[in-house]
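Example record

One chain of 484 residues, shown exactly as stored in the release files.
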Amino acid sequence: MSDLAFESAHVLARRLHDREIGCLELLEHYIARADRYDGTLNALIVRDDDRARVRAREADAALVRGEVWGPLHGVPMTIKESYDIAGLPTTWGLEHLRGNIAVKNSVVVDRMLAAGVTLFAKSNVPVLLADWQSYNPIYGSTSNPWDTGRTPGGSSGGGAAALAAGMTALESGSDIGASIRNPAHYCGVFGHKPTWGIVPPRGHATPGVIAPADISAVGPLARSAEDLEIALDAMAGPYGLDANCWRLELPPSTKTEAKDFKVAVMLSDPNCAQDDAMTEVLEAAVATLARAGVRVDGKARPAIDTTEAHRVYIQLLRAATSARQSDEDMDRQRAILAEAAPDDESYVVAAARGNTLSHRDWIHLNEKRTHMREAWGAFFEEYDLLLCPVAASTAFPHDQEGERHTRTILINNVPVPTTDQLFWAGYSGAVLLPSSVAPAGLAQGLPCGLQIVAAHGHDKTALAFAKLMEREVGGFVPPPGYDG
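Predicted structure tokens for this chain:
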């Protein structure tokens, strides 16, 4: 029975449909595992077991009647704390939102329920989803199941940890600074950041906010690439006013075999110092794919200055999140900028420029971004994908002292700013492209993921390549110690 915990969601759905196992039986299995392991991990911080049991019983009864709710009928699922589920708290880790109880479901929750899932818990996040660690004053800190002294990533860290430890079958996160991609990489699972705008974020916000944020996307995490595609199909599509006038038709991948793919590979960049052991794992994964027949070009790049791209990303990122700043915070940002030299490109000053950006300056930055998007478009006329890292290293030790921008991580035994890792988050993120993450192996006992960047709207091509990696390189591997 314990092997069920690590099955992919689509396999579980088939077994449920064939009545090999019951929906309530499977739910109880995951609940029992959460009871056993989550005391150490602290990944699932809001439980909804009773309502989930009611739904699982209804799912079993529906199958007896011959009714199938959707492709994930009866599959237990968890979801990031920042999504609204009616009757449960949505706090984003903020003390003043401790009593904020959602009155309706987010769009993604409703769509996943329509696909048949049984939601039974919410997963942990950092405050305001603004860290590559997942801790907050309400729910505490989440640990990585591969090494509980290390972060599972953020901001979708609780969900990635729960997937890796076999405490859930599926998860949905969000990503503006690699918040899906980074936890997938750190925990050894699959993740997909969709093309911006194709999955409605309504109901994934602090109270009263309904406008979608620049760069930010919501999307799935799972233990297989097939699960990502099923979940994306369930989530994606217009909502509200958009549904009056447009329909989403993601192009299917025309490529399935290794020989079909022509990819560029970019495994390092001067803007981000990188751990050698992790890079070697990524290189080995690419070599395996090349031997399988993938056509690999190690020199091709979009016609973009990566330093300028990173500068634009940081300012657009901080502009996108500036609405979360208090008046006092904004005063501090203005003070930082007033004292900074015009040529100061440090992260703190770059962030202050973004936080205090005028609309006119934002328009100029968006123009630069649009030229970059066109350059990416031209690049993808010749190449199907670009393969690159997700982060500078594998999961790093917990470090919750001070502000994020003052912390460092060790890269090849040299301390470097944690914020440098944002380069790989923004390279595809700022230009709104879809990116999948697939497990590539272990570096010194910790998972490494490879980022698969596709053309705008070509999410299915990235997912098809993730399926290929799963076959050729090897997919999800359970961490030791969670097989009981």
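Notes: The first helix runs from residue 9 to 17.
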